[in-house]
Structure formats: structure tokens, C-alpha cells
Design brief:
Layout (H helix, E strand, L loop, with lengths): L4 E6 L8 E7 L2 E7 L17 H6 L8 E4 L2 E4 L2 H19 L4 E5 L9 H12 L4 E3 L6 H11 L7 E2 L6 E5 L3 H4 L9 H10 L3 E5 L12 E3 L6 H14 L12 E2 L1 H7 L9 H4 L3 H13 L3 E5 L1 H4 L4 H14 L9 E2 L43 H7 L8 E5 L3 H4 L3 H7 L5 E5 L12 E3 L20 E4 L15 H12 L9 H18 L10 H6 L5 H11 L16 H5 L5 E5 L4 H4 L7 E2 L3 H4 L2 H9 L5 E6 L24 E3 L1 H4 L9 E5 L4 E8 L7 E5 L12 H5 L26 E7 L4
Parallel strand pairs: 6-7, 6-15, 9-10, 9-13, 10-11, 12-20, 15-16, 16-17, 21-25, 22-24
Antiparallel strand pairs: 1-2, 2-3, 4-5, 4-17, 8-14, 18-19, 21-26, 23-24, 23-26
Helix pairs in contact: 2-16, 3-16, 4-12, 7-10, 7-12, 13-15
The chain binds ligand MGD (2 copies), iron/sulfur cluster and molybdenum atom.
């Protein structure tokens, strides 16, 4: 019998970054438990972490490249796959130009050791001009507001939950999600701790989620009402002379413009739009203003909605006006051990941000931060004419299920001349590919999060080595990205020198950082730094990020400082304490101050004001997550799929009764985009007038290879999401607050 060994590993599935102990016997994962010694997560984990073994051993997971021949995928060698790409891709680009190719980046790119670092290599090296991503179905409004307020599109203030006394959670459900754009293991436990030390937690959500069980108060807001509510708080703060910038006095531009802009939004004026009582709105504004350590935290419910950018902006505005930015216990900026590549400002925005620099061919959608809404992809493939997309690469994404109108994309993808996917499964999207290049399982690759520590409540870090070898001859995903960038440029596989490409990318990073004002190696010779950083790939980049980070050895500046080797020597991680005030280090606006009132954002206020008058009859659909799902891609893990059906329509009894709907009955849900049939769950946890479906289901399409998921397929809620419903400023999808009709199935 082989000896059981127990290895530590950080779970990369979500932002909680839990430390796990993984028991392996004879090459099989036999047990996964939380690691109580992990300095960051301290013994916390959720059921998904326990499923990493099932994901790794999943017989449906692809381990070898696949080429589609006569409609069926056949496993081939890596060199055959690259030859096929070289044979088919360059002719398309030669005839239709590089504009004929695009990429869709999915969510796991952000969590994957290789992809998170080498996506930044692939984009400039491939020269592909327009890319798509899950970002425009997620946090694009926050990227936009942060770019304008603070100068960095990934500069997100986060609540310092461990020292906070008054926390408002808007449009987030950590009970399912475990926290987002807020890294903090056991967020619910930390919310409980706020209340145990005499503080207060308020949840604002159209649904009484599991998170509400950890709060003192639940405000059942109408979908999309957040910007109006936040504006009313701003109104009360100015009206009652409660605005207090605290230490930020003199550091905030545009206060007068905000004071003027909030005038129409009295608590009384927003009652209809928010569905909340004026007294509650006023009371909370006063409580916020008088709390010493407080923060408003907004997440996907404030982004994926009608006024995503206004709401995202206003969360920061309210924190600023109540002296709750950049102070302990309030909204703060994290200080990661290893800085993230996303902290570089793209050179195209060196002189400031501008939007709508180009427009999409079919819909005329303006680009925002380089992207069009994800829902544009299907029409850009399907609509003939010059500029049509002929070739697509998807990287760790499943837009057929995850993006609005994904059913149209499903129909458009077969029209492509060539499609490549880098993915571990043959799913609703990748089944359309001509070539699939497998990624690694979590356990086959090292791990150290690239971006997530940039919004973590403590300055911590930890490295996990790979626990299993790659299959013979397999390529790591960072190598695949470099290879593909060269193939897009027409190079033949045998002529490609990966080491040279990696060196080129790394040298560029070092040079860029050495030129950044205030960087720890400002003015140093990049060649010297490169020579002092051995190795290759993502580990070398990580070593560089740590050594030049705030606690790093700085290439000789502080011999006691951190290196990757020192981090590796601590398998339970390194923790260097809570966040500290650091606005001066993160701000990169032209004025050097917080730009509180960007014209671009204020320009959307008339639309918000108009919306106060609109009466909202009929039902509105919102989305939900579950702790045992992860977007669309973990429904093939048997341990996560036990128990009752999770793909149900939640509906309030007052809405169910007149429609003759009872628990378990089938309902027909119709929007102007599409129609689905789904079982209902009648529950008082919904605000009346609002119904709710999970996203990421709909695994009933032929052609996929997902035995467990397709046995309990559920329906895809994004069939109901009209692609043209977007937040006007960011182009981010509005997948919450979709007008729908619901009736007993077969009754209409
Ligand atoms: N209606 C509605 N729609 C939504 C949302 C919502 O709230 N409501 N939420 C949106 C949000 S926030 C997001 S982020 C998007 C997600 O949108 P996507 O990123 O497009 O979808 P995922 O389901 O995360 O798909 C991930 C893909 O990556 C693959 N994968 C997993 N791990 C790896 C890996 O390590 N390497 C590689 N190469 N592939 C891997 C999986 O097999 C899967 O194909 O969905 C969005 N869609
Ligand atoms: N288990 C699990 N964890 C995940 C994921 C997953 O799919 N499963 N996905 C990951 C990803 S990609 C992301 S982006 C994060 C997202 O993390 P969260 O933002 O916490 O996401 P949700 O759990 O969807 O919570 C969003 C909440 O917003 C509410 N809401 C909807 N519309 C509105 C509105 O108009 N106003 C307000 N105030 N609230 C509204 C919904 O009812 C819901 O409770 O989760 C991540 N973690
Ligand atoms: S909360 Fe669950 S999915 Fe997220 S990192 Fe921890 S174990 Fe993994
Ligand atoms: Mo997301």
C-alpha cells in the first residue's frame, strides 16, 4: 500500500483563497480538509474546495488536445494541434486582417496561476485589436468608476471588515459567493464578529439571502434602485451638513458638483424607485455619518444592473463623504505582498481615460476600457460584411451559458471559419471549437493568486506547488498562450522559440516597472534586474513581483525583505498584517487627488432622474449563486450536485397565487429575449414583484461531454437576458432587473 501523504494547497476557485490539506494515496485524492494552520484562511473552506479531487479525476476532463474531425473530437498530440492551428488560422488573418480574430477571456483566467499572468503577454504579442471578456458581465462598472476616481481601473477600495463597526452590504451574497472584489476567507464569520463587538450590519438586496442571517437589518430594494438610494444618502449628507471628508480634506476634487447633482434625489423622491421608506433612507444616512468605522460595500448586484456605473461610483462617493475612505475600519486599499500586473496603467491611457474611441460594427456600441459588451460577440460573428469575426479563441470561458443572449452565440459559433478553446472540458461553448487545448487541473499546477491579493483584507501571501505531474508532453497554459500569440502572427510551430518569447515579455515587464515613478526599482538597469531573476514563466514573474513589492528585498535594497524562495519556505503562508492607509501610493489621477465628479459619470444622472418617475409594473428577474456552484463549470462534480434541484424560479407567494403557481409546479418565464420553462419554488425570501433564477445552468445541449452536469441540466437564465440591456456608461450587461412575465406552464 502506498503511504498517504498530506499536502497543503490554496484553493484557487474563488477569492477566499482557502488553505487546504489534500490527502493523496496511490495517485488518488482521498480526502480534502481545511488547513487550520493557514495564516490567511485559518481553517475555513467551503464544499467546492472539497471537490478539487473530483475535478482533477473527472473522467470527462480533457487531458490531451482535441481536434474536431467530421463533427467529432479526436485526441491528438500537442504538435498535431499546433500544426492544425498553423494550417488554418494564418490564412484567415492574411485574407481578412487581424480584426477578423478575437478572444473571449473567461472568469478562471483571473484565478489561474499561468493565465492570470500571461493574458497580459498574449494581448500585445498577438496584436488582436478587440477582445471580449466575462468582465462586461461582471465588474466593468467598477473598473470604470475606479479608473476615473482613483486613476486605476483595478484600484478598488474594500471594507476593512475586521475593524469595521458598521457595514452595509449592497448587492452581494457572500453566503454563496464567499466575497468578491473583497478577499476575506469566512466573510460571514467576520460579519458575525462585527455584531459580536457591538457593531451593525445591513444587507440591501431584493432577496433575503443567507447573508441576511448574518445581518441586523435587511432592506428589500427594488432591482436597479441602488444608485437612487445612494444618491439620496448623498442628498441627506449635504442637506443636513453631515459631509465630512476627514483626512481627505483638500484631496478631493469636484465636491461642489456632487452637492449640486444630488439635489433632486431627496429620500422622498426615490421611494418608488428604491421601494424603501424615506425614513429608513434618512436614518441610515445619519447612522453612516455618525459611525466612526464604517463602510459601504457593493458588488455584483450593483454592477450587473441598469445603473451599474452610477451605483459603483456612488458607493465610493458615500464612503468618501462620510470620512470612511483610507482609514482603519473603513473602506481601504489593500497592500499586497506581490503587486499585480493589473496595477500597470495601459499605455493607451497614459494621458487619461477616454471612452467610445471606436464603436462596434453591428450595434455601434462604444468601446469602454477597450471592450464591447460580451453580448456583441454573437452579432459580430453572424453579421456578414467587412470586419466580420472569422476566428475566435476562448480562454477559460463559457459565454454560451454565461452571457446574455448566449443562445444566439450558440447559433453563431458554427459560422466561424476557425475556433480554438483553451479549456478542460467539452462544454456548451468549447464543443464548437475546431481545436481544444487542455488547461491543467488545479492540482497539476502551482498556485499564487495574481490579482486577488490586490483586494485582500490583509497583506498576506502563500505559494502552493503542483501536486500532480502533467500528462506526458503536456504544455502549461502560459506556454500555450505564448505559442498561440506567435501562431496568430503566422510563425510556424517549429520556428517558435518559447524561451525567447518569455524573455521578451519578462524584460518588458521589468523595464516598464523600472520606469514607473515611485517603483522600488525606479531608475535601475532592467538588464541587471533580469539577470538577477533566474527561472522562467509565471514563477519568475511572481518572484519579481514579490521582490519589488512593498515587503520585498528590492534587489539588494533590503536583504531582510521577501523573495519567492522565502514565501515558498512557509507552506502555511506569510501574514504581514492588516491594511494601512495608503491613498497617496495608489492615487494616479492627473490632479493627484480623488476625482469625485467625473463628467462622464455625471452625464448619466439625467437618466437616473427620469427613472424615478417610471412606474414599474410586472415582474423583474434577478440572478443568484449557490455555494455549491461556480458560474457554469462545476456542475460535473458529483459531490456538488447532490440534493434537491437548485435551478428553480424563486417567487413570492403574492406573485405565485394569482398565477396559480404552487411549489414544484412548472412555470413559463418569458422576456422579450426568450422563454424558458422551470420549476418554481414559492418563498417569502423574494421581494414581491421580483423573481430569481441561478445562472450557469442549461447543460442539455447535444455535443458536450459532461455526464454529471447533463444529467441535471437545468435551464439557462441568460436566454431571458436581452443583449442590448446594458449599463449605458460601461456597456456592462444588465442581467438583474429584466422585465419578465411568469405563468403556469401550458396556460398561455
Ligand atoms: N445571468 C447571469 N449571468 C452571469 C452572471 C450573473 O450573475 N447572472 N455572472 C457573470 C459573472 S460575474 C461571470 S464572472 C461570468 C463567468 O463567465 P465565464 O467565465 O464565461 O463562464 P464560466 O462558467 O466561469 O466558465 C469558465 C470556463 O473555464 C473553464 N475552466 C475552468 N478552470 C479552468 C482552468 O484552470 N483553465 C482553463 N483553461 N479553463 C478552465 C471551464 O471549463 C469553463 O469552460 O458569468 C456571468 N454571467
Ligand atoms: N459559490 C459561488 N461562488 C462564487 C461564484 C459562483 O458562481 N458560485 N461566482 C464568483 C464570481 S465570478 C463572482 S463575480 C462573485 C460575485 O459575488 P457576489 O456579488 O456576492 O454575487 P451573488 O452571490 O450573485 O450576490 C449578488 C446579490 O445581488 C442581489 N441583487 C440582484 N440585483 C440587485 C440589485 O439591483 N440591487 C441590489 N442591491 N442587489 C441585487 C442578488 O439578489 C444577490 O443576492 O462570486 C464569485 N463566487
Ligand atoms: S470558499 Fe470554497 S471555493 Fe472559495 S477558496 Fe475557499 S474552499 Fe475554495
Ligand atoms: Mo464574476
Amino acid at each position: 500500500m502506498a503511504q498517504a501523504e498530506i499536502r497543503t494547497k490554496t484553493c484557487p476557485l474563488c477569492e477566499a483563497m482557502c488553505g487546504l490539506r489534500i490527502q493523496i494515496e496511490a495517485g488518488q485524492v482521498t480526502k480534502i480538509r481545511p488547513n487550520p494552520k493557514d495564516v490567511w484562511s485559518q481553517g475555513y473552506m467551503c464544499p467546492k474546495g472539497a471537490a478539487l479531487g473530483e475535478l482533477h479525476h473527472d473522467p470527462d476532463r480533457i487531458r490531451f488536445p482535441q481536434i474536431k474531425r467530421e463533427g467529432r473530437f479526436v485526441a491528438v498530440s500537442w504538435s498535431e494541434a499546433f500544426d492544425e492551428i498553423h494550417r488554418r488560422l494564418p490564412p484567415i488573418i492574411e485574407s481578412d486582417g487581424i480584426e477578423a480574430m478575437t478572444v473571449y477571456f473567461g472568469n478562471p483566467v483571473a484565478h489561474n496561476f499561468s493565465l492570470s499572468r500571461y493574458a497580459a503577454a498574449f494581448i500585445p504579442m498577438s496584436n488582436i485589436p478587440v477582445t471580449y471578456s466575462a468582465g462586461t458581465v461582471d465588474q466593468w462598472p467598477k473598473n470604470l468608476s475606479s479608473a476615473l476616481l482613483f486613476g486605476g481601473m483595478w484600484t478598488f477600495p474594500i471594507p476593512d471588515v475586521d475593524r469595521c463597526e458598521y457595514l452595509i452590504v449592497m448587492g452581494a451574497n457572500p453566503h454563496a459567493s464567499q466575497g468578491s472584489l473583497l478577499a476575506c476567507a469566512d466573510l460571514l464569520g467576520r460579519m458575525d464578529a462585527i455584531r459580536e463587538r457591538g457593531g451593525r450590519v445591513i444587507v440591501i438586496d431584493p432577496r433575503r439571502t443567507g447573508t441576511v442571517e448574518h445581518a441586523d437589518e435587511w432592506l428589500a430594494i427594488r432591482p436597479g434602485g441602488d444608485a437612487a438610494l445612494l444618491m439620496a444618502w448623498v442628498n441627506v449628507l449635504f442637506e443636513e451638513n453631515r459631509v465630512d471628508l476627514g483626512e481627505l480634506e483638500g484631496r478631493v476634487e469636484g465636491l461642489d458638483r456632487v452637492a449640486l447633482a444630488c439635489r433632486p434625489f431627496t429620500p422622498e423622491a426615490v421611494v418608488d424607485r428604491t421601494g424603501l421608506a424615506a425614513d429608513d433612507i434618512r436614518r441610515i444616512a445619519r447612522e453612516l455619518a455618525s459611525a466612526d468605522r464604517a463602510a459601504v460595500y457593493g458588488r455584483i448586484g450593483t454592477c450587473n444592473q441598469e445603473f451599474g456605473t452610477l451605483a459603483s461610483w456612488l458607493v465610493d462617493v458615500v464612503n468618501i463623504l462620510t470620512a470612511h475612505l483610507d482609514r482603519p475600519g473603513c473602506a481601504m486599499f489593500a497592500n499586497p505582498i506581490a503587486w499585480s500586473l493589473t496595477s500597470f496603467r495601459p499605455p493607451e491611457f497614459a494621458d487619461g481615460y477616454s471612452f467610445g474611441r471606436w464603436h462596434s460594427r453591428v450595434r455601434g456600441a462604444p468601446e469602454v476600457l477597450g471592450q464591447f459588451p460580451a453580448s456583441c460577440l454573437s452579432e459580430e460573428i453572424a453579421t456578414p460584411g467587412p470586419g466580420r469575426i472569422r476566428a475566435l479563441l476562448t480562454i477559460a470561458g463559457n459565454p454560451v451559458l454565461s452571457t446574455p443572449g448566449g443562445d444566439r452565440l450558440d447559433k453563431a459559433l458554427p459560422e466561424l471559419d476557425f475556433m480554438i478553446s483553451i479549456d478542460n472540458w467539452i462544454n456548451e461553448t468549447t464543443q464548437h471549437a475546431d481545436v481544444i487545448l487542455p488547461g491543467q487541473s488545479v492540482l497539476e499546477q502551482p498556485h499564487y493568486d495574481e490579482m486577488i491579493w490586490s483586494w485582500a483584507v490583509r497583506s498576506a501571501g502563500k505559494f502552493s506547488p503542483a501536486l500532480f505531474d502533467l500528462p506526458e508532453g503536456a504544455w502549461a497554459e502560459w506556454e500555450v498562450l505564448l505559442m498561440l500569440a506567435a501562431l496568430v502572427n503566422g510563425a510556424s510551430p517549429e520556428s517558435i522559440d518559447l524561451e525567447a518569447l518569455d524573455q521578451l515579455f519578462f524584460t518588458g515587464l521589468v523595464a516598464g516597472f523600472a520606469q514607473s515613478p515611485g517603483s522600488t526599482i525606479e531608475g535601475r538597469d532592467p538588464a541587471e534586474i533580469v539577470a538577477l531573476t533566474p527561472g522562467c514563466g509565471p514563477e519568475r514573474i511572481l518572484d519579481f513581483q514579490i521582490r519589488t513589492g512593498p515587503f520585498g528585498e528590492g534587489y539588494g535594497a533590503d536583504p531582510e525583505g521577501l523573495t519567492l524562495a522565502k514565501v515558498k519556505a512557509e507552506p502555511n503562508g506569510i501574514d504581514l498584517g492588516p491594511m494601512r492607509p495608503r491613498l497617496d501610493q495608489v492615487i494616479s489621477t492627473k490632479s493627484g487627488n480623488v476625482e469625485l465628479a467625473p463628467e462622464y459619470i455625471l452625464g448619466d444622472l439625467p437618466r437616473l432622474e427620469e427613472s424615478l418617475e417610471c412606474s414599474q409594473d410586472g415582474l423583474q428577474l434577478i440572478s443568484r449563486r449557490h455555494v455549491r456552484s461556480n458560474n457554469s463549470w462545476m456542475h460535473n462534480a458529483p459531490a456538488l450536485m447532490t440534493g434537491k434541484d437548485r435551478c428553480t424560479l424563486l417567487i413570492h407567494p403574492e406573485d405565485a397565487r394569482p398565477r396559480g403557481l404552487e411549489d414544484g409546479m412548472q412555470a413559463e418565464v418569458q422576456s422579450r429575449a426568450g422563454r424558458v420553462e422551470v420549476a418554481v419554488e414559492v418563498t417569502e425570501e423574494m421581494r414581491p414583484g421580483v423573481v430569481c433564477l441561478p445562472h450557469g445552468f442549461g447543460h442539455d445541449r447535444p455535443g458536450t461531454r459532461l455526464a454529471v452536469a447533463s444529467a441535471r441540466p437545468g435551464i439557462c437564465n441568460n436566454v431571458l437576458a436581452p443583449g442590448d440591456l446594458v449599463d449605458h456608461l460601461s456597456g456592462n450587461a444588465q442581467v438583474n432587473g429584466i422585465p419578465v412575465e411568469v405563468r403556469l406552464a401550458g396556460s398561455g
